[in-house]
Amino acid sequence: MRTDSPLKLPGSIAIRNGRVVDAATGFDGSADLLLENGLISAVGDVPPDRSDAEIDATGLVVTPGLIDMHVHLRQPGFDAKETIESGTAAAAAGGFTTICCMPNTRPTLDSQESLELLHERIEREAIVHVLPIAAISVGRLGVKAVDYGQVVAAGAIGFSDDGDSCDDPGIMIAALEASKELDRPVMVHCEDKALMGGSMHEGDVSARLGLKGLPALAEERFLERDIELAARTGGWLYALHVSTGTGIEMIRQAKASGVHITAEAMPHHLTMTDEWVAGDRRLVNVDEPVGPAGLPADPNTKVNPPLRPLRDTELLLAAIEDRTFDIVATDHAPHAASDKIAGQFETAAFGLSGLEFGLPLMLALVRAGRIDYLDLVRLMSLNPAQVLGSERGRLAAGAPADITIFDPNDEWIVDAERLRTKSVNTPLIGMPLKGRARYTIVDGELRFAA
């Protein structure tokens, strides 16, 4: 990770007058923090003149640094979509101090060599922590298992063929067996290719628009298979971007029966429906302003898994509230403009930009009373840190000084020209949002300031 931040403040930093939220202890109240030598050295009352620099956090919320477990940085191989430099700049602007990058690159992150080359680039260009996820199968082709011990030794924090399911149950069993030995999750994208071929959720809206749909069953069938394999092996299954009510109910039941499974939700699956594909710009499950009407079949609403009907969003949110979901991540999936051409919905690439919108969308749920700040920090910092086996995700003396400071009341309009990501493939352009990061601090260094 780069250490030549142009925003670096000298020496120690005191953060004063903020609302401090730490899900590790359940604390939500007024406190000061002192950061020294890359660590938190004090929480509570920090005497005057104790620090070299100060941040006045009056009216702001101070949390452990946010951690995004599901990001596509596109390098190596797809620099036109995103780079380590632009992706980590977007992460810092979104309040994320650590991000985990998926292996669907060229070459695939499936070997010690590919991970070492990526690490060299991260050291040169990243301004937040970047932790790589290795593939489950070589080339993500589902034919040969990766050398799991080798890629973990090279820094992989998990295994995923994200973008595809691993069809071969034998390889999945090998990965799940390795997950027990290596204490790394198998992070599965559940999708039955035999049921694919559509471009949005199969239902009333797809029929109205005349678009071929993707049935919910395509996700649920492979989720059911992978839960069964995890139960048989005792391995650690991490279910990526669960998007259906039936799917999260499967996970709820699996957890109750003792299956080792971590469940991940996306902000867009909690707050948007398939009506967005029809041009609606209304966030659901919250009480927020409606954005300007969009064009039907906007390619920026095409995501995989697809945006689902309202009932699914309600069931997913209920699983957030009862803690069936462990983690909220963005699935930041940048694409160049040529991948998302207006009028070409069915051939457009799947995916939307997420790093700069995850926090504002979750804050809308806080304002609606569906979650509170402690929930937000648990889902977006503490629990991800625990999956990573990290000391981050908490505010305590001796913990790493990764800090997110956000203004919950900052009202802004999403402007493509002001986004840090290289690709602005989001249907939120022109939308009014409320709340965003004001300062992002990584290892005691200021990496973003609004």
Describe the protein's architecture and organization.
By secondary structure, the protein is of the alpha/beta class. The protein has a single domain, classed as Metal-dependent hydrolases (TIM Barrel, Alpha-Beta Barrel), CATH 3.20.20.140. The chain contains eleven helices and 17 strands. The chain has helices at residues 84-93, 112-125, 148-153, 169-182, 204-209, 216-233, 245-256, 267-271, 310-321, 358-367, 373-388; strands at 13-22, 27-36, 39-44, 53-56, 61-64, 66-71, 96-101, 129-132, 186-188, 200-201, 213-214, 237-239, 261-265, 327-328, 403-413, 432-442, 445-449. The strands form four sheets. Strands 1, 2, 3, 4, 5, 15, 16 and 17 form an eight-stranded mixed sheet that branches. A four-stranded parallel sheet has the order 9-12-13-14. The mean pLDDT is 96.
